[in-house]
Amino acid sequence: MPEDLVYLAMIESGFHNHAKSHAKAVGPWQFIPATGKRYGLMVNWWVDERRDTHKSTIAAVGYLKDLYGIFKSWELASAGYNAGEAKVARAIQRYGTRDFWTLSRHRYLRSETRNYVPKIIAAALVAKNRTQFGFKASGASGAEPHQGEAVAGDGELVKVERAVEGKPERVPREETLEAILTQEDVAQVGVASTDEASVPAELRPDPSKPMARVIPTPQVSKKGEASGIELIEVEVQSPADLLHVATAAGLTYQTVKSLNPDILRWVTPPLAKGYRIKLPVSVKDKFLEAYNHASYPRKVQFLTYKARPGDSLIRIARHFGIKVDPIADLNRISPKTPLRAGTQVLLPMPVDRSRSLASLEVRDTPYPKRRPASVKRRKPQSSSATQVRSKKVSLKRRQAARSAEVAYTRD
């Protein structure tokens, strides 16, 4: 593929893996959930691989190759990436041409799409002739990691914070789970670890395989150099608590989270057999030795809820303010399955209650909030109806309302 297509990501997001558009497109290549899933990206409550630079780039290459196979033109393929292949195909049919520059003279394509390809070309021209546009020469402007820093997958520098020895780390959060639960609720919530008999077999680790192993994956810097690898990918058996991973590596929880923006929660996807986590190459030996040690405490412990009579997963999810899908996936049952009183239900929250609410926080949720279908908008009342209603209010009540309003204004 043409290397200049890398500037498509620059126009889309500025190479920022947290970028989000008004259409809910996320990541450096700005995939919407449906397109991301179509090209192999996992997008759910647990992870959003559209934020992973390496995985999303592979998906973008596949999408652009398919678009080129349809239009036989990289300009039209780029326009299709922005507007969708159907929109570009209708433009070709309407005007009888496959030349992008001819199509861009008409107003059928939005101005954003008509300007999209020129922006990519302009970005490539500036990047290849940076001194003529007032920028520093190639290589002079690239950020180099200093001691205590690592180059993340998107080329950004991440400060590597070391965990304090002997001091257990907690994700800072003023509120705790007890603050939103009644005493009766707290009595209903317990602890479950992934090796208990009640936990689905999919969540139990495989003792015949190492808990973590290094995956050789080259990291390319913004200069286009594959040497000087600053990060490695480590495949861990899932689910894996990121706090346990950080502790084994001697890093802080926030450092591990910043190096892995695709992991939305405190734990890797529970139903995945394994998941790749990025760590600084400097901590490889320490992490593998500690995390693979038989005595290392790496059990993932989920909160459990003891179902009451009449409970359902939907009702429990609404009670705790969690989506029902992750609870259903974690327990391997349908959201509509009736629950018997006393059934132990796993909740996608850690047993450490000081982390519970923080574990549910995400900068951007992958799905927009939608109004329930049962909720209907009220029709605005006509002025005549308002007048009729106002006549029914007695004079005594109006005077009382005015006096209360005056008193409130004075206060």
Describe the protein.
With 411 residues, this protein is α+β, with helices and mostly antiparallel strands. The protein is built from 16 helices and eight strands. It has helices spanning 6-13, 33-38, 53-71, 74-83, 85-95, 100-103, 111-128, 183-188, 242-249, 253-259, 284-291, 313-320, 324-331, 353-359, 383-391, 395-410; strands at 149-151, 157-159, 189-193, 212-215, 231-237, 274-280, 301-306, 344-350. Strands 3-7-8 form a three-stranded antiparallel β-sheet. The chain has a three-stranded antiparallel β-sheet with strand order 4-5-6, covered by helices on one side. A two-stranded antiparallel sheet has the order 1-2. It is globular, with a radius of gyration of 27 Å.
Quick take:
Helix content is 37%, strand content 10%.
Task: Tell me the strand percentage band.
Answer: 5-15%
| Secondary structure tally: strands | 8
SSE succession: HHHHHHHEEHEEEHHEHEHHEHHH
User: Major sheet: size, sense and barrel closure?
Assistant: 3 strands, antiparallel
Which structural category do the helix and sheet elements fall into? alpha+beta
How far apart the termini lie comes to: 69 Å
* Gyration radius, rounded: 27 Å
Helix percent band: 25-40%
Give, in spatial order, the strands making up the sheet with the most strands: 3-7-8
How many distinct helices?
16
Let me know the average pLDDT: 77
Q: Which residue ranges are poorly predicted, with pLDDT under 50 across at least 5 consecutive positions?
A: 170-187, 224-229, 363-373, 381-391
Tertiary shape: globular
